[in-house]
Amino acid sequence: MVSSYVYLLGLSQFLTSALSANTGRVCAPETFASLSLPSIDVLSIDAKLNNASFDVDDSTNAYPVATNKTVEVCQLTVNYTHLGWNDNVTTWISLPVDNWNGRFMGMGGGGWIMGTRGRLSQAVFGGYAAASTNGGHDEAATVKSWGLSSEGNVNWANMQDFSAVSLDDTASLGKAATKMFYGKPHKYAYWNGCSTGGRQGHMMAQRYPTQYDGILAGSPAINWDKFIPSEFWPQMLMNALDYYPSACELNAFTEHAIDECDALDGVKDRIISVPGLCKYNATSLVGKTVQCSSNSTVKITPKAAKYVTLVWAGPQDPSGSSLWYGLSHDATLTRLAGTNCTLPSKNCQPIPFQISADWQQIFLARNSSLDVADITYTEYIRHFRQSVNEYSSIIGTRDPDLTDFKQAGGKMIAWHGMKDPLIFFNGTENYYRQAMEIDPSIQDYYRFFAAPGADHCKGGIGFYPGSSLDSLVNWVENGTAPDTLRAIATPTGTDSAKLPLRTADLCAYPKFLTYVGGDASKASSFTCK
Ligand SMILES: *[C@@H]1O[C@H](CO)[C@@H](O)[C@H](O)[C@H]1NC(C)=O
Ligand SMILES: *[C@@H]1O[C@H](CO)[C@@H](O)[C@H](O)[C@H]1NC(C)=O
Ligand SMILES: *[C@@H]1O[C@H](CO)[C@@H](O)[C@H](O)[C@H]1NC(C)=O
Ligand SMILES: *[C@@H]1O[C@H](CO)[C@@H](O)[C@H](O)[C@H]1NC(C)=O
Ligand SMILES: *[C@@H]1O[C@H](CO)[C@@H](O)[C@H](O)[C@H]1NC(C)=O
Ligand SMILES: *[C@@H]1O[C@H](CO)[C@@H](O)[C@H](O)[C@H]1NC(C)=O
Ligand SMILES: *[C@@H]1O[C@H](CO)[C@@H](O)[C@H](O)[C@H]1NC(C)=O
Ligand SMILES: *[C@@H]1O[C@H](CO)[C@@H](O)[C@H](O)[C@H]1NC(C)=O
Ligand SMILES: *[C@@H]1O[C@H](CO)[C@@H](O)[C@H](O)[C@H]1NC(C)=O
Ligand SMILES: *[C@@H]1O[C@H](CO)[C@@H](O)[C@H](O)[C@H]1NC(C)=O
């Protein structure tokens, strides 16, 4: 076997290419020549040795990278198109040359980015063979360039790739390449992602339930058809009320709400752990003067209070019925209610959260010259309905029936920061509750953990469960279901002066982290209730 490869490649190429000590397989396109799937036409396969480095996006809930290692990998780039779709997908596969741990990992993306080659480093540092995909569009490409096939027309092939299809391909191609390189199949397959990556993990469990043995899904962008339009609600409201709040005003409301509600959970730590107890009323700030900088102040108006109240409530239809959730009181408002002001509180212009504006402009209006500031309340409500009608089955990712995943023996851990300023915590809770109603024994294979005070995917002053992957592996391979997830709060900036490093064990829903007394920086001072 080895000698025939040597013969085919020629001696000099052999000397400069990798011959894995474990496997005898050469890292060259020939090794992977038969890589394909019935649904695709492979356009090119590139395979070469590379050193994975620490070029990772730090914002995903991925395998913790302790050191800036150098791990030699066989790096594959597979370009393909789906038969009859006229799409163009790139999938990256990284196979550690030495010390493969026998496992395979699919790595997720964030925002419009399906995945990146860089993120594979995190997995290969942990010994995993790993794969990720660009989902049919380059990460730097404008949404217009891949979302529309022409003005007025959605590129449905690219939308299907982004939603689901390329994820299934990536798992199949990645596993097949793993087997070709090591000469034996992987023992366990894991998914690891946060945000869009968390949605992708849920998509795998819902639609491709046999691909992954274990799925780690942080801050999941599930309920996409509803929550993405909801992210635009704060911007539409600014235009509807003709009121453009400064960050200074918005932060004043957030801080005031935290002052009022923080202690209701028993600990004064600027974290609202039991949001249901918070009855803060924004009108209580009306008339107060807020210091925005050393020489600038702003007086809070009734309109400001009305605005913030509506943002916290979330989108409502004309009858006053709620269409989706709002942000938690301790979540930063300025991500979705962004403005750009010339002075701390003067001449503010709206700055929509980009993904929510893209969704309105490209996927709903399908008009790349539309100014999203022109979207009226009536059009917004129409777009909301359109989003659900046209996209729920494609990218909603909220099918609560996980029977097939259960039967396949899969395990899934989801977690969500309770002060996430981008993806509404309550949407994930809502999904989990529905799944629990369908199958009361859901905890046997799918557990959800609320992370008080944690921001989107990580950060914030709250508890980030950075070692969840270890808990997942232990569940899949040892059968040890995690009742709690170890989490650490590492306050930064001004917070770090006031708060120590804290540890807590996050609770499996429907239980929540509950303070029972003692040093609030110690996990033993909390229980699950
Ligand atoms: C990877 O790094 C090692 C150690 O620095 C080096 O010997 C090797 O040549 C590098 N491999 C590649 C493909 O660059
Ligand atoms: C890791 O190493 C690479 C290559 O030496 C370097 O460019 C990068 O800055 C390092 N990253 C960190 C976080 O140390
Ligand atoms: C796919 O994209 C690559 C790189 O941009 C290009 O070389 C190739 O021609 C494209 N293939 C198809 C079928 O569009
Ligand atoms: C594969 O596609 C990528 C774009 O995703 C491109 O950079 C690369 O050149 C393509 N490879 C080949 C061999 O066409
Ligand atoms: C959101 O979830 C939290 C935690 O379960 C709960 O206390 C709160 O009432 C929920 N908010 C809404 C609007 O459902
Ligand atoms: C908030 O306070 C105002 C003024 O006291 C009152 O009119 C309003 O009903 C209150 N809102 C809620 C939700 O309690
Ligand atoms: C406030 O102070 C800054 C810096 O000292 C100065 O640039 C700015 O013009 C002042 N603004 C007002 C409204 O006085
Ligand atoms: C904010 O406004 C200034 C002045 O108009 C402009 O130069 C800057 O690019 C804007 N920033 C953003 C993030 O839009
Ligand atoms: C797209 O939006 C622009 C700017 O609002 C508008 O002038 C144009 O009529 C719209 N195109 C279509 C096809 O609706
Ligand atoms: C399985 O359990 C054993 C014994 O507790 C432990 O040493 C090992 O690390 C666990 N395996 C995994 C994959 O977590």
TrEMBL record:
GO terms for molecular function: feruloyl esterase activity; metal ion binding. Residues 1-20 form the signal peptide. This is Carboxylic ester hydrolase. One of its GO terms (biological process) is antibiotic biosynthetic process. Belongs to the tannase family. Its EC number is 3.1.1.-. Keywords: Calcium, Disulfide bond, Hydrolase, Metal-binding, Serine esterase, Signal. Pfam families: Tannase (PF07519). The keyword Signal applies.
